Amino acid sequence: MEKIMQNFKNILCVTDLSQVSINAEIAALRLSQLFSAEMTVLSCGEHYAHIPNKFLNDNVVQPQENFPQSEEYKKFLEQKKLETYDHFKKISERFHVKIPENIGYEIKLENEVTATIDILEEKNNKIDLIIVGKQQSSFWERLLFGSPAKEICNESKVSTLIMPSSEEWSTWEPKGILVASALNETSEYAEEVAATFAAKANCPLLLLHIFDATTTHLDMNISHIFPIDYVPSQIQTDTIDEIKAQKTTEIKKIKQTLQDKTGFTNINTQIDTGRVGDEILNLIKKDKNKNLLIIGARGESALKRFFLGSKTSAIEEACFIPLLVAQKNFT
Fold it and tell me: Residue 127 to residues 11, 195, 236, 277: CA-CA distances in angstroms?
């Protein structure tokens, strides 16, 4: 059988050149080498509105929003590009990471989300992977203003790697990968991405499925109109065992399919019972060798996410290791 690998050929690193973005920048440099990918640095954000730098001279007017395409504007962008180039040179020297030969620098004055969408359109949606830093914000800041990393993931519809900002992740390289599977077509791309990632990084892959026994029982026995009046009885142990046996068979088939497609064999499987988000995070806490979580994006509408929430969104908020939300760019 011909081997199929979901390779990343075009990586976009979104940065505001601040401390929050450093781990994303380092990861982008490393993964560009790992996948032999073209890398684009998108330097953007509010950082440009107020932080001076040695490349800007006093004669250049710092442009505001909707600033006309004047010579001063063009000169400003060129100087910001020099600043970005110098920043990555220092990052490369400090962390001993090579800057890829096939690298480009893009400067945008918009916020990270708007700038990312603009770049995707300009590049005809040829980006395979976006890498961005996870900002540390309070609950109220996330509620009122959202998270740029989360919004980029939701709006771009492109696979997005979200890097924690703490210094311990500056030396990150995948050494153990966990992929959460729903055992259906919504997880297929995430599973293939995970197998490819593990094969490239030469690290073990754990294919994990978690089912909520209470939810499963409710789905099997629902015959009422008003859920608020329904109190589910305790699901029988034999029923749980039957479901677990069925899902074990399914996950083993997925494992075999991934091995056939990618030629990568270091894949293990695990079936757990409980709340999906809680069990994933508990497993990561227990197993320090798992340092990359890969999940598939859920296709709910914004309205549904607002009222009912999203397992993906909850995991994005709580995850404390690098998180890759796999989304196939059909364009």
Answer: 6, 20, 48, 29
Mean pLDDT lowest for which of 101-115, 117-131, 240-254, 313-327? 313-327
pLDDT value at position 226? 41
Distance CA 117, CA 148 (A): 12
Which residue(s) pair with 161 in the sheet? 131, 324
Task: Give how far Cα 189 sits from Cα of 100, 115, 233, 254, 305, Å.
Answer: 27, 26, 36, 12, 22
Rg (CA), the chain: 22
Where do the DSSP E strands lie in the chain? 10-15, 38-43, 103-107, 129-133, 159-163, 177-180, 205-211, 267-273, 292-296, 323-326
Q: How far is Cα 74 from Cα 65, in angstroms, rounded to an integer?
A: 14
In percent, the amount of the chain with pLDDT more than 90 equals 49
Name all domains of the chain by residue range, CATH numbers in brackets. 1-167 (3.40.50.620), 174-331 (3.40.50.620)
Residue 304 confidence (pLDDT) above 50 = no
Amino acid at 150: K
pLDDT in tens, 219-254: 444 333 444 444 444 555 567 788 888 999 999 999
